[in-house]
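In this section we turn from sequence analysis to structure. A common task in structural bioinformatics is to predict how a protein folds when a small molecule is present, because the ligand can shape the pocket around it. The inputs are simple: the amino acid sequence and a SMILES string for the ligand, here PRP. Study the lines below before reading on.
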Amino acid sequence: MSVVRTIFLQCPSISPFSASATSINSVSVKFKVSCCSVASPATVVNGNVDGKPSERNEVRLGLPSKGRMAEDTLDLLKDCQLSVRQVNPRQYVAEIPQISNLEVWFQRPKDVVRKLVSGDLDLGIVGLDTVQEYGQGNEDLIIAHDALEYGDCRLSIAIPKYGIFENINSLKELAQMPQWTPERPLRVATGFSYLGPKFMKDNGLNYVTFSTADGALEAAPAMGIADAIVDLVSSGTTLRENNLKEIKGGVILESQAVLVASRRSLIQRKGVLDITHEMLERLEAHLRAVGQFTVTANMRGSSAEEVAERVLSQPSLSGLQGPTVSPVFSKRDGKVAADYFAIVI
Ligand SMILES: Nc1ncnc2c1ncn2[C@@H]1O[C@H](COP(=O)(O)OP(=O)(O)OP(=O)(O)O)[C@@H](O)[C@H]1O
Ligand SMILES: O=P(O)(O)OC[C@H]1O[C@H](OP(=O)(O)OP(=O)(O)O)[C@H](O)[C@@H]1O
Ligand SMILES: [Mg+2]
């Protein structure tokens, strides 16, 4: 448990002369991950030939080396008492002292996914969008934890608010626009060249072409390069500032950071399953504790039982178990007395 912040309570019914609340950093959680068999036939891939794990003894975890996920990932692991120790920031390999036999490798998010597929990494933390885009439905990739509660965004189609799109508010309406023909298809700019076309195809948009771009996609419609874009949206500010809008039925994927594992590694590489358990227990313990607090307050009373009774008379104060009540001793007129009791709930 670590102290994150202290608040002072003002609660007349328990008349505290002081109280503090400490956010709980972890609760006890036990996980069981099991893996049955490899669902897909073994393929020949770099570092992982015929489904056999490559020759190494260490378990490898890939983390984002850059971008917005990099710092948040290290912060989350630190909150789970899994501090990543990097000898120097230019080195791409690091360790987590609490887990022996684990190597941490810093890679671009898309390379974390590619290297999981190739067998050069066993575990990784990236956004679900990156797993889906670069994993392309590969059955070797298993989402071990699907909600690490940061990196929230959605992959969405956006179109201009103006011109021929002014009254278009749904994917259906977009698909039915007479403008799109084999000669003049809907032009979509996206960095998601797997998920974008797949979604359009699955939703019956036939006359569509895609162009790829790495950044500032929101400028493409105004520049006349594209009619629509498929990109990540979080607050919606970038779309708004560029006169674009999302449409009904146009969300391709809801994404946040996930822990992803290679199925073959879980089954075949010694230590991967145990390390995955250990990480899941720590992650879940931390995530479940978010928003829970331990409150310590000193209450006046004639006995511990009387104080406990008053606390328990308010179900919202009882907590999961407890309260713990202990006398607070002070010296008055040369005599030791306990007029107050410390409650912990
Ligand atoms: N605006 C956003 N808000 C929240 N999370 C986001 C946002 N944009 C992206 N993400 C999440 O963060 C991940 C990394 O995005 P980021 O833009 O930091 O890196 P990148 O796209 O790999 O790098 P770059 O954009 O420089 O090519 C994305 O895959 C997605 O899961
Ligand atoms: O809805 P918002 O909160 O405005 O966020 C959306 C923007 O965030 C991402 O871009 P990023 O900041 O990663 O820049 P990039 O285009 O260089 O990837 C994404 O590609 C959008 O452009
Ligand atoms: Mg980006």
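Residues 153-255 form a domain with the D-Maltodextrin-Binding Protein; domain 2 fold (CATH 3.40.190.10). As an exercise, try to locate the residues that line the PRP site and compare them with your own expectations.
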